[in-house]
Design brief:
The complex is a heterodimer of chains A (195) and B (412).
Chain A: E1 8-11, H1 15-27, E2 33-36, H2 42-49, E3 53-57, H3 63-71, E4 80-82, H4 89-98, E5 100-105, H5 110-158, H6 162-176, H7 180-194
Parallel strand pairs in A: 1-2, 1-3
Antiparallel strand pairs in A: 3-5, 4-5
Helix pairs in contact in A: 1-5, 5-6, 5-7, 6-7
Chain B: E1 6-12, H1 19-26, H2 29-32, E2 35-41, H3 45-53, E3 59-63, H4 65-71, E4 81-86, E5 92-97, H5 98-107, H6 120-136, E6 143-146, H7 152-163, H8 168-171, E7 173-176, H9 182-187, E8 193-197, H10 200-206, E9 210-215, H11 216-219, E10 226-231, H12 232-237, H13 239-257, H14 262-270, H15 279-287, H16 303-315, H17 325-332, H18 335-342, E11 355-356, E12 363-365, E13 373-375, E14 386-387, H19 391-397
Parallel strand pairs in B: 1-2, 1-3, 6-7, 6-8
Antiparallel strand pairs in B: 3-10, 4-10, 5-8, 5-9, 11-14, 12-13
Helix pairs in contact in B: 1-13, 5-6, 13-18, 14-15, 16-17, 16-19
Classes of the chains: A alpha/beta (195), B alpha/beta (412).
Chain lengths: 195, 412
């Protein structure tokens, strides 16, 4: 058993995140990883795959369905228990905060499953961080467009150079403890109302 | 300056019986107690259980069976959650697909659903005949879904089926589907029927996807439903906040029970942050009068409800390791907290009845302050009697039961 690769099933509504988790597990040397996004016929598919470990996003509404299957022994062959060691509250909390839950076949060596769980948790976090960075990048781009437009208005109406317009916006923002983009938005609104 | 309110993180599932939580936030009952409820909507009971058990949330609107199962480590998670109050009676119903409904009527034209005068035993007998004829012709077994292995829905549906000789584990496929996914599963033909809380039964009828066969009231009117489940460690260190929370939720539940508030309640619950369904549909569910939020002890954490649920977990083979059922119920259900929070503000029951099921009509029990305390009918559809001193004997007396232990494993 020790040399044998674990069979891992990743269930996630979000296909991109499932792919990130799968890639992480593959990089950690796991070759028997299957991901499922759709949840129809879950029982039959789980029975066919007979996974040692199931990693599923914590918020997935299908977890209730999944847990029932584990109770009905004819649906899944071996009893499955959640998480590796109930005494390890810190690692369970870390997994939950990352949005990961897992079900494992009883009797597997703790370290082997722990490693899978840690990979999943770190990949969920990576995915969240990347999504956050992307959201921030999108926001930053939108902010810059607003600031550019406000600068254009000030340059035209006051006859300022670009750096003068920007300095004015920044100074006003600092004085009033506001974000530059908010000041820029006020400039645009004022300009539009004057029209 | 007013001190900043204590923030409590509470999970909930979009169902009508999350009303007390929603109303406490929206009608200032929480604010009056100096509380801010940080309400978090969840899509599954497993997520609710895990987050409360491991302290990510302080508490949640949850199925009454969850803290009991969790205490016993059933379903893979072991955790300490207490139930200092209940969140209402009623609201569940059993809905079947149009195909199955037509088939029931074809074997017995009188087996009509809850919209007419409903005879639950007659409907169950018709269902037994459909099941027998499917077996005879080699058709696959019918599939029914409930919302969680340890839900009242599961036990109610099974109770009803078994009264007419249907063995849910041998004659049917019994599955689990989260409430918001029920209608879709019926539509896709994945299941033939389900037992769920509102508005997910009326929704199926409104879409022409199925028929409501019977309601919880037809099986056992005042059975346990949802409770306020709190992380025990958190509750221990926040005793005063817990008391204020119980007070806020009880007042909110009382408000929700008043017919004159139904329009407002429907509007609140229909909002995207709560159920996110049409307000008229929710209003219809409320007008059917199947929900009891406060009156007749609907928020009182009756310990007999805990022992009854444990008796059903025993009956259906979910409890697999020896346990003292009465002791488990007493650890989880905490009427002491409920009483301490409310005794100076509201009428409370004096004692908890030992016997459930003996009253076909409303009845009175002694109140804590001398005034009689009104109770709703508690008769089971088959006239069964539950003695909370003997949940084990009760569990083993059913002709259809699949216990995995022997009675001596379940007593002190």
């Amino acid at each position: 058993m020790s040399g044998e690769d674990l069979s891992i099933l990743v269930i996630d509504i979000n296909p991109s995140r499932a792919a990130v988790v799968e890639a992480g597990l593959a990089a950690a040397g796991h070759t028997r990883v299957v991901t499922l996004n759709a949840t129809t016929n879950l029982a039959a598919r789980i029975e066919a795959l007979a996974p040692d470990v199931i990693v599923i996003d914590l918020e997935n509404p299908d977890r209730d369905t999944l847990e029932q299957m584990f109770q009905v022994t004819r649906a899944v062959q071996r009893p499955i228990a959640m998480f590796v060691d109930h005494s390890d509250t810190a690692s369970i909390r870390a997994a939950m905060e990352a949005g990961v839950s897992a079900y494992v076949v009883d009797g597997l060596r703790k370290e082997r499953v722990q490693a899978v769980l840690e990979t999943a948790v770190s990949r969920f976090r990576t995915f969240d961080r990347l999504r956050k960075e992307r959201d921030e990048a999108v926001t930053a781009l939108a902010d810059r467009k607003i600031i550019d437009r406000a600068k254009g208005i000030l340059m035209k109406s006051k006859g300022w150079a670009e750096d003068e317009a920007y300095t004015a916006l920044r100074k006003n923002a600092m004085t009033h403890n506001r974000k530059i983009v908010d000041v820029a938005q006020s400039v645009i609104t004022a300009f539009e109302m004057d029209l | 300056m007013t001190p900043s309110p204590a923030v409590i993180r509470l999970g909930f599932i979009p169902l009508i019986d999350c009303a007390a939580l929603a109303v406490a936030r929206e009608r200032d009952f929480a604010a009056q107690e100096g509380l801010e409820i940080d309400a978090r909507k969840e899509g599954s009971w497993a997520a609710i259980r895990d987050k409360v058990a491991f302290g990510l949330y302080d508490g949640a609107h949850m199925l009454a069976g969850i803290p009991l199962a969790c205490r016993l480590g059933l379903g893979g998670v072991r955790g300490d959650i207490i139930a200092p109050m209940a969140l209402g009676f009623g609201g569940n119903a059993i809905t079947v697909s149009n195909t199955l409904y037509d088939r029931l009527l074809s074997v017995d034209p009188g087996a009509t659903g809850a919209s007419k005068d409903c005879d639950p035993s007659r409907i169950a007998r018709a269902l037994a005949r459909v099941i027998a004829s499917r077996k005879a012709t080699g058709e696959p077994p019918l599939s029914f879904a409930t919302v969680f292995p340890f839900s009242s829905h599961n036990y109610e549906l099974r109770y009803w089926l078994a009264t007419e000789g249907i063995d849910p584990d041998r004659d049917l496929n019994m599955g689990i589907i989260a409430p918001p996914r029920m209608v879709e599963s019926l539509r896709s033909g994945w299941i033939d029927g389900y037992c769920v809380g509102e508005p997910w039964n009326l929704r199926a009828e409104a879409e022409g996807m199925g028929h409501i066969l019977l309601t919880k009231r037809d099986i056992w009117p005042c059975g346990p439903e949802k409770i306020l489940g709190l992380n025990e460690a958190w509750a221990k260190t926040h005793g005063e906040v817990v008391a204020r929370l119980v007070s806020a939720l009880a007042k909110a539940a009382r408000w929700a029970d008043r017919p004159e508030n139904r329009a407002d309640l429907s509007e609140i619950l229909s909002r995207p942050e709560y159920i996110n369904q049409d307000a008229t549909l929710i209003r219809r569910a409320l007008d059917l009068g199947r929900h009891m939020f406060f009156e007749t002890g609907a928020t009182y954490p009756w310990r007999a409800h805990g022992t009854w649920l444990l008796s059903q977990m025993t009956r259906w083979g979910q409890i697999t390791a020896p346990a003292d059922l009465t002791a488990v119920a007493e650890t989880v259900y905490r009427p002491d907290i409920y009483r301490a929070a409310l005794e100076s503000q509201m009428d409370l029951p004096g004692t908890e009845p030992r016997i459930l099921g003996a009253n076909a009509g409303t009845f009175l029990i002694p109140g804590a302050n001398g005034t009689p305390f009104p109770m709703a009918p508690d008769r089971f559809l088959d006239g069964g009697i539950f003695d909370r001193e003997d949940p084990v004997g009760y569990a083993f007396a059913f002709p259809i039961a699949h216990p995995t232990l022997s009675p001596s494993d379940l007593r002190p």
